[in-house]
Specification:
Keywords: Metal-binding, Nucleus, Transferase, Ubl conjugation pathway, Zinc, Zinc-finger. It comes from Priapulus caudatus. This protein folds into 2 domains: 3-122; 140-238, Zinc/RING finger domain, C3HC4 (zinc finger) (Herpes Virus-1, 2-Layer Sandwich), CATH 3.30.40. Helix content is 64%, strand content 4%. It has helices at 3-40, 46-81, 89-102, 106-109, 113-125, 128-137, 142-146, 182-191, 217-238, and strands at 170-173, 179-181, 213-215. Strands 2-1-3 form a 3-stranded antiparallel β-sheet. It binds zinc ion. Zinc ion binds at residues 173, 176, 178, 197, 199, 202, 204.
Length: 239
């Protein structure tokens, strides 16, 4: 009787990898949606913001539960393997799952990296003074620094080194951390095979490959913000 349910459970656990992916995507989308809303409206009401935080906490909760589910299953499997009488798989699982769940409270969920990351980004965005400074004095933002975009005392590079036009879809080279516009790279790679990072003084001698490039959403956000702000400033100056 123990064989069949174990097999089913193991298969279910295998399928959970997909759920992990969905949850990670959900968390990312929640953060991005929150930042987009804040960008449009800094005075986003508290209620909406708190709703969005709760959505994030819900994802965190689901991910945590998933972890408990895995641990409880592992625990039940070992218990069953170690006993030759009809130990009740379901009961063992339930007990362990309950034990793990009761040890997790709401405060623990708030310690989750994705949740803290979201709060940090919201805080960063709600400090408009700082954001203005970043653009006018080229002081690096923590976000940009984290994604390796900026060298201290230098401008944030928002132009694609291939086409020398403002990037719209920045991708970052994971090897040398330089950024290019995705469309430009695709175009370059279609034209010839051996394309290297065009940044002046770059040590990366490896030929460019799409596999080495990741989307740089922080830089994209920065470029969009810059476009809006400089657009606004220009209008004001002309009046
Ligand atoms: Zn480079």
């Amino acid at each position: 009787m123990t064989r069949a349910p174990l097999g089913v459970i193991e298969q279910a656990i295998g399928n959970l990898a997909k759920v992990d992916e969905y949850l990670a995507t959900g968390m990312e989308m929640t953060t991005n949606a929150t930042l987009d809303l804040l960008e449009c409206d800094k005075d986003l009401n508290e209620e909406t913001l708190s709703d969005l935080k709760n959505v994030m906490l819900k994802f965190v909760e689901m991910e945590t539960e998933l972890g408990h589910f895995r641990s409880a299953t592992e625990h039940a499997k070992q218990a069953i393997n170690g006993s030759n009488d009809g130990a009740n798989l379901e009961e063992i699982f339930d007990d362990k799952f309950r034990e793990l769940s009761s040890a997790t409270d709401a405060d623990a969920l708030k310690e989750h990296k994705a949740y803290k990351d979201m709060l940090q980004k919201v805080t960063d965005m709600l400090q408009p003074g700082e954001a203005e400074e970043q653009l006018s004095e080229n002081v690096e933002s923590s976000d940009l620094e984290r994604s390796g975009l900026i060298v201290t005392q230098q401008d944030v590079v928002t132009k694609c080194p291939f086409m020398l036009t403002e990037m719209t879809n920045p991708v970052q080279n994971t090897i040398c951390k330089h950024n290019y516009d995705k469309a430009s790279v695709v175009q370059m790679l279609e034209a010839r095979k051996n394309v290297r990072c065009p940044m002046l003084g770059c040590d990366n001698k490896k030929n460019l490959q799409m596999a080495d490039l990741v989307e740089n959403s922080d830089l994209k956000r920065y470029i969009e913000k810059k476009a809006r702000q400089t657009g606004g400033k220009r209008t004001r100056k002309h009046i």
